[in-house]
UniProtKB/TrEMBL annotation:
<feature type="transmembrane region" description="Helical">
    <location>
        <begin position="6"/>
        <end position="32"/>
    </location>
</feature>
<keyword id="KW-0675">Receptor</keyword>
<keyword id="KW-0297">G-protein coupled receptor</keyword>
<keyword id="KW-0807">Transducer</keyword>
<feature type="domain" description="G-protein coupled receptors family 1 profile">
    <location>
        <begin position="21"/>
        <end position="231"/>
    </location>
</feature>
<keyword id="KW-0812">Transmembrane</keyword>
<feature type="transmembrane region" description="Helical">
    <location>
        <begin position="152"/>
        <end position="177"/>
    </location>
</feature>
<protein>
    <recommendedName>
        <fullName>G-protein coupled receptors family 1 profile domain-containing protein</fullName>
    </recommendedName>
</protein>
<feature type="transmembrane region" description="Helical">
    <location>
        <begin position="44"/>
        <end position="67"/>
    </location>
</feature>
<feature type="transmembrane region" description="Helical">
    <location>
        <begin position="79"/>
        <end position="100"/>
    </location>
</feature>
<dbReference type="GO" id="GO:0016020">
    <property type="term" value="C:membrane"/>
</dbReference>
<feature type="transmembrane region" description="Helical">
    <location>
        <begin position="120"/>
        <end position="140"/>
    </location>
</feature>
<dbReference type="InterPro" id="IPR050125">
    <property type="entry name" value="GPCR_opsins"/>
</dbReference>
<dbReference type="InterPro" id="IPR017452">
    <property type="entry name" value="GPCR_Rhodpsn_7TM"/>
</dbReference>
<dbReference type="InterPro" id="IPR000276">
    <property type="entry name" value="GPCR_Rhodpsn"/>
</dbReference>
<dbReference type="GO" id="GO:0004930">
    <property type="term" value="F:G protein-coupled receptor activity"/>
</dbReference>
<keyword id="KW-1133">Transmembrane helix</keyword>
Amino acid sequence: MPDITVLSIFQVTILVLASLLSIIYLIPIILIRRFHTINNVFTANLSIAAFCCSTYWLIYFVLYLFYTNVLSGNTICAILGYFEMMCTLQMPLAIVATSIHRLLSITYSKRSTLSTKRRAIMCISGHWLACIVLPLPRIASFNNPYCDTQKWISVYTFVMYVVVPSIISLVNNILIFQHVRSSSNRIQTVEIGGSQNQRHKISRRDLHLLRHMIIMFVIFVGGWTPLNPPC
């Protein structure tokens, strides 16, 4: 059995808190009727994704610390590899699904409520389908006698965890900014005397939106911290 270090205790504690907080955040969205909105559906989806990710890694660390022998064998490695990627993908892809829905809601804001619900269902369904399909290459671990992570799998998982979600989120944010900017430019001020002040306010709003998007993108990329359990 590996030595239990302060870092191990810290990791397990953080994962327990993440699992509990995601459930606590999810419960009122489910139980309170006034929270049953489209936006809160995506919030609930993020909470479920956070719970899946943190719970998987919590189980993994507990098994590694106390039942190391369970984690050996080709079949176990392949199964763990698949679920590791599936659960870890939950958060970045949930954020991507939310950003896509936000872009569609802004671009097609005049569509009916039914269309909005359909978009939400499609975005969330696409998120879960991608989480199930994308980790399938990890099944290649069945042919790995030493249970080591192959180089191409490491590259593939990094691209799926960080590169692809980051690019999609960046493109969505750029399109949102362009749409908001073009909509702002179409605003006409009735009073001539207030035209300069109106343009100044629009400019500040656009700048605030751009700053917010940059900060969120940096947090999205920089906040992705690979979990490196000692396998």
